[in-house]
């Protein structure tokens, strides 16, 4: 009988693919074997030709989710004596590299098992199977087997071992398999690390009284219910609980309690940036938010991201989320429990909880219990911890559903480290991304893997995480980079790390201009080669002329980029301080237009003692870098409209401006002409008439929402004019400003009506989280020479 050898590549490890192959081969009466291999999965199968055809067709057409078959190589082999089909031990030899599986939310079958009144996994917080549970967060090496995960320390009990070896069981070769008898355990400790137990009043006592408990008591208790009940009682009592989750610690408080939310903000030093809220069920989400079918699919999918949802009006809401959770925002970030530990905790709390990353502002998320106790000891009252090590930090992904469908704003859990194919031949490339919302990326074998969201590189801890993650990707996939790419800015932490790594790997360094990388990231995702007109609008990025760009229209064709147009430049008094003070951007705009005449308007935002030195700086041209940033233009207009002079986080004023514009409805746009540049120079879109018109509206008492809507409409008009002038039928929207759903959707609609194809990021962030992908795209299309990319 004929015998075939198949090598399958794609998302085929850690997702129940080998058991699927086993069941299908056995059902067709085929002999042979399947095993994990560093290049994916290897299969040898023997039997009647008709059965073999059915087997191969099933793998191609009907791979069971979440498996994804990307490539199958098939060879004829000589017939052998074949017994029943079997799963062999995985091969750890060198060779092609597989895709690493992403972490998956608890499946319905496991959730039912955890919720059941009987069964040995009743209320067990670490229940999983071949279709769900931890993957990337526990992986220490390839191929994906228990011995190369942080579960290696937990020896399977006889019952789990029997399930693991039973082809008919859904835990057949499920590497994180565990139960209360042999798996990880949970315990509750104080901020000093002392184990706790309930008071004599019993679990869930309203006063939340707790007393220290010995380690022996904890290990001997068996059931996690006591720890979970006391953690839930603490949340209900208004305390802050730090929970060790899948990819790091979360901080939990009662989302319906203004006092609890205020306490968390004070301790975490996070004044107003929105928190995400975890709800116990989809019905519970609908008590607070409007949920479309597509949004429900996103919430309930195996990736289970945070999804930005429109909040119900207070009169329509059936649960009152504290205003301080997302102050001034029309949308709420909602997510569902994606591990049994979260599920059980939410059931006990019985109401929505704030679920935010376990870190202090601007620091990486904590993954180790001792580190969490040290860094979060002043934030959390209690720590719900477990003894399964986390291999690498992994934040929650953030998504929205817009007119174009599902869009990721932060790519992490559930999506990382799934690869993106690139149609280019190039040696391995390591990219270090930007300075804010950082990611790293690794290109090899015609695909690129973008790391999880790593946060900002302001701190030494943040910079160290970027370097560790870059090296972790190279180690995990066994790739030695032959090119290293980074941002053009010489002082970014990522740029300095890239220089060091390029020297260590003896690889050329490719510096990619910030906004070129933004556009290139979207081109990479959609398989575009160019030329395209890229509208790259964001807060700021280092330009080729050494100024701060951020309102760019670039013609991008592969690795080349030409600046076709930009926002009129203006000074930013105080430089980076303007990121947190929209009034400074407004002052810079007014100074650019009216010089000393800006003083009268600025008195609304500054005391005279503050204003005088700033005007002197502007007059001298010192401490006031010039910028073309649309993001800072948003800030300035927000201040002019009377929204806010200071912000607690970058983008706050712009987000509030979007909310007001959306509520105001469609308006005619302010004038914002696009003026031709000198020969060989880019065109300029001039904010002067817009600012003067907005000032006039403000004097006339026009509501801020109308001003906001007219401003948005002006930018849509600019995009239309730039697209028309370019003569290109393809426009890419990239940069952090296009996290603004109203702006992105309005431009898309306007340009589509003119027959222009519009592309925007979908599965990679439009902001700086996509820079590493764009750097890879450009570096792969350049020669092996170091230096800045011209554009």
TrEMBL record:
Domain Acylphosphatase-like: 3-89
Ranges that cross the membrane: none
InterPro entries recorded: Acylphosphatase-like_dom, Acylphosphatase-like_dom_sf, Acylphosphatase_CS, Carbamoyltrans_HypF-like, Carbamoyltransferase_HypF, DHBP_synth_RibB-like_a/b_dom, HypF_C, HypF_C_2
NCBIfam families: hypF
Name by which UniProt lists this protein: Carbamoyltransferase
GO molecular function: acylphosphatase activity; carboxyl- or carbamoyltransferase activity; double-stranded RNA binding; ligase activity; zinc ion binding
Residue numbers spanned by region Disordered: 193-225
Species per Swiss-Prot/TrEMBL record: Sorangium cellulosum So0157-2
Domain YrdC-like: 225-414
Annotated catalysed reactions: an acyl phosphate + H2O = a carboxylate + phosphate + H(+); C-terminal L-cysteinyl-[HypE protein] + carbamoyl phosphate + ATP + H2O = C-terminal S-carboxamide-L-cysteinyl-[HypE protein] + AMP + phosphate + diphosphate + H(+)
Active site residues according to the UniProt entry: 18, 36
PANTHER family, per database record: CARBAMOYLTRANSFERASE (PTHR42959), CARBAMOYLTRANSFERASE HYPF (PTHR42959:SF1)
Pathway stated in the Swiss-Prot or TrEMBL entry: Protein modification; [NiFe] hydrogenase maturation
Enzyme class: ligase
Coiled coil spans: none
Keywords linked to the UniProt accession: Hydrolase, Ligase, Metal-binding, Zinc, Zinc-finger
A biological process term (GO) from this entry: protein maturation
Keyword tRNA-binding attributed: no
Keyword Iron: no
UniProt record similarity statement: Belongs to the carbamoyltransferase HypF family.
EC number: 6.2.-.-
Pfam families: Acylphosphatase, HypF_C, HypF_C_2, Sua5_yciO_yrdC, zf-HYPF
């Amino acid at each position: 009988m004929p015998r075939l050898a198949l090598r399958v590549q794609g998302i085929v490890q850690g997702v129940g693919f080998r058991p699927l192959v086993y069941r299908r081969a056995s059902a067709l009466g085929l002999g042979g074997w399947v095993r994990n291999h560093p290049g994916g999965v290897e299969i040898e199968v023997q039997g009647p030709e008709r059965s073999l055809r059915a087997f191969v067709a099933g793998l191609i057409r009907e791979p069971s989710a979440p498996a994804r078959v990307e490539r199958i190589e098939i060879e004829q082999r000589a017939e052998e004596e074949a017994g029943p089909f079997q799963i062999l031990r995985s091969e750890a030899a060198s060779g092609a590299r597989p895709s690493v599986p992403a972490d998956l939310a608890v499946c319905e079958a496991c959730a039912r098992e955890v919720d059941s009144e009987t069964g040995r996994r009743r209320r067990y917080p670490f229940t999983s199977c071949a279709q769900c549970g931890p993957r990337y967060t526990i992986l220490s090496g390839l191929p994906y087997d228990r011995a190369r995960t942080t579960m290696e320390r937990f020896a399977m009990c006889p019952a789990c071992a029997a399930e693991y070896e039973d082809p008919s069981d859904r835990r057949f070769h499920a590497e994180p398999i565990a139960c209360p008898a042999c798996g990880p355990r949970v315990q509750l400790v104080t901020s000093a690390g002392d184990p706790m137990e309930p008071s004599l009043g019993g679990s869930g006592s309203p006063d939340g009284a707790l007393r220290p408990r010995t380690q022996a008591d904890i290990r001997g208790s068996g059931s996690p219910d006591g720890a979970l009940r006391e953690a839930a009682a603490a949340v209900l009592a208004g305390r802050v609980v730090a929970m060790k989750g899948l990819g790091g610690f979360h901080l939990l408080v009662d989302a319906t309690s203004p006092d609890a939310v205020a306490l968390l903000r004070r301790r975490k030093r996070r004044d107003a940036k929105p928190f995400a809220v975890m709800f116990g069920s989809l019905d519970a989400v609908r008590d607070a938010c409007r949920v479309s079918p597509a949004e429900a699919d996103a919430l309930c999918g195996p990736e289970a991201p945070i999804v930005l949802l429109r909040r119900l009006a207070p009169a329509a809401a059936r649960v009152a989320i504290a205003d301080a959770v997302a102050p001034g925002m029309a949308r709420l970030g909602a997510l569902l429990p994606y591990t049994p530990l979260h599920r059980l905790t939410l059931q006990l709390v019985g109401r929505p909880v704030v679920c935010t990353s376990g870190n202090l502002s601007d620091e990486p998320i904590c993954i180790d219990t001792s580190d969490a106790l040290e860094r979060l000891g002043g934030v959390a009252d209690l720590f719900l911890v477990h003894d399964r090590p986390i291999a690498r930090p992994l934040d929650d992904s953030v998504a929205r559903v817009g007119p174009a469908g599902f869009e990721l704003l932060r790519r992490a859990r559930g999506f990382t480290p799934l690869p993106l194919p690139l149609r280019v031949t190039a040696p391995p490339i390591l990219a270090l991304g930007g300075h804010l919302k950082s990611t790293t990326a690794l290109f090899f074998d015609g695909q690129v893997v973008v790391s999880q969201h790593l946060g900002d590189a302001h701190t030494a801890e943040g910079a160290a995480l970027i370097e560790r993650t870059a090296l972790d990707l190279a180690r995990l996939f066994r790739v030695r980079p032959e090119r290293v790419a980074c941002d053009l800015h010489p002082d970014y932490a990522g740029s300095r790390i890239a220089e060091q790594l390029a020297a260590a790997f003896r690889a050329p360094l490719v510096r990619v201009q910030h906004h070129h990388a933004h556009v290139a990231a979207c081109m990479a995702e959609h398989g575009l080669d160019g030329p395209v007109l890229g509208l790259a609008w964001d807060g700021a990025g280092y330009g080729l002329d050494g100024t701060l760009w951020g309102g760019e229209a670039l013609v991008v064709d592969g690795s080349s980029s030409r600046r076709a147009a930009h926002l009129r430049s203006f000074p930013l008094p105080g430089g980076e301080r303007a990121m947190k003070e929209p009034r400074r951007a407004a002052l810079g705009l007014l100074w650019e237009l009216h010089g000393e005449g800006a003083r009268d308007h600025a008195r609304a935002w500054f005391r005279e003692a503050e204003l005088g030195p700033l005007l002197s700086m502007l007059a001298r041209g010192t401490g006031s870098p010039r910028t073309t940033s649309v993001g800072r233009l948003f800030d300035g207009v927000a201040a002019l409209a009377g929204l806010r002079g200071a912000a607690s986080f970058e983008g706050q004023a712009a987000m509030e401006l979007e909310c007001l514009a959306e509520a105001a409805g469609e308006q005619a746009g302010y004038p914002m002409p696009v003026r031709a540049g000198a020969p060989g120079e880019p065109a300029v879109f001039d904010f002067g008439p817009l600012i003067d018109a907005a000032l006039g509206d403000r004097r006339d008492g026009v509501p801020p929402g109308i001003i906001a809507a007219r401003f948005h409409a002006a930018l849509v008009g600019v995009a239309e004019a730039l697209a028309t002038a370019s003569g290109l039928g393809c426009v890419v929207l990239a940069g952090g400003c296009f996290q603004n759903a109203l702006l992105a959707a309005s431009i898309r609609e306007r340009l589509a009506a003119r027959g222009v194809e519009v592309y925007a990021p979908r599965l990679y962030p439009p902001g700086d989280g996509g820079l590493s992908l764009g750097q890879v795209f450009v570096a792969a299309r350049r020669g092996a020479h170091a230096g800045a990319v011209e554009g």
